[in-house]
Amino acid sequence: MRRTPLIPALCCAVLISSVAIADGIDYSTEPQVPALLQRLRIDDHFSEAELQQVTLALADARRLPQLIVQEQKAPERTETWTQYSRRIDDSRIRDGVALLHEQRDVLERAENEFGVPPSLILGILGIETRYGRITGGVRVLDALATQGFEHPTRNVFFFGELADFFALCRDRGFDPRTPTGSYAGAMGDAQFMPSNYRKLALDYDGDGKTDLWSLPDAIGSIANYFTHYAPDWAWRRGEPIAIPATLTNGVLPAGAVVNSRDNFYLAGDLRRAGVQPSVPLPDDTQLGIIDLALDDGSHEYWLAFPNFYSVMTYNPRIYYAMAVTQLAQRIEAAAALSP
Q1: What is the pTM of this model?
Q2: What is the rounded radius of gyration, in angstroms, for the C-alpha atoms of the chain?
Q3: What does each C-alpha distance from 209 to 168, 190, 200, 201, 202 come to in angstroms?
Q4: Is 71 a catalytic residue?
Q5: Residue 89: inside a domain, yes or no?
Q6: Residue-range definition of the domain harbouring residue 141
Q7: Is residue 54 part of a domain?
Q8: Domain Transglycosylase SLT, which positions (predicted)?
Q9: Are 143 and 184 in contact (CB under 8 A)?
Q10: Range 8-21 average pLDDT
Q11: Same domain, yes or no: 179 and 269
Q12: What is the pLDDT of residues 136-180, one digit of tens each?
């Protein structure tokens, strides 16, 4: 299923965008451009003709400073859990169950090959793009040029992604002026940044193209991501993600560290300290504590297994990982009740 076909790269020069001229910005003249070209020349063996095409594309890039504001005010950073959790809605659950049936063979193949369950892949697709319906309408070139040259705190990251984007376009035969994505330059149903697109995207439907706007390719690529992106947090086949917990005394144990990837506790110690998991666990099970503050002043507590922190490699925010987790669980429960 492909909604945004990618057009092969053009060999001819293009005119500088009227938008860029009106804004007074020509990114091809930025002081960092020589470093970008040198990086592409050395790391990715760009020819001088290919580097000239990069310069022409940068001249066509639009300056969109509002994207920096969007990145800084991303909802997983600025919303409360009460607000963010509204994404775990009936329509996403219903559509996730429908997609589970529609793509069952692909999802089962991904689980067999990588150990990543269908419900988690659907949780990612549901939170990221509503299963491929909303993949972003910003030109990736504009997003990464703006963020890479002008972001006040993350310009180094986005500059690297801009370089990977040009290499991706060269290697895949994309015109860099064509792909669209998020305000941060993430692409396709899986919302991969260019570096991950290059390293981890798969041709999972066997059509000879690695196309993350194709659901089968996105499904296989997500499973591949969780297996290979971060070896220390690689997905653990057959293990859970997170379970609810209650506090016997209504308060967390003194000194307990919550919402951290660096602090794990033994299930037996937690029970003795008044943190009760929703299902029985062996005493030596290692768990993190998740504390979700609600708008009414109450708290929702969960116990996180290592796989929860694997989900956080996709987006390092607790709310994001918890939304994916709970959506995955709700899809799995709904699917078990559906014919």
Answers
A1: 0.91
A2: 22
A3: 13, 16, 13, 10, 8
A4: no
A5: no
A6: 18-63+136-186
A7: yes
A8: 39-329
A9: yes
A10: 35
A11: no
A12: 999 999 999 999 999 999 999 999 999 999 999 999 999 999 999
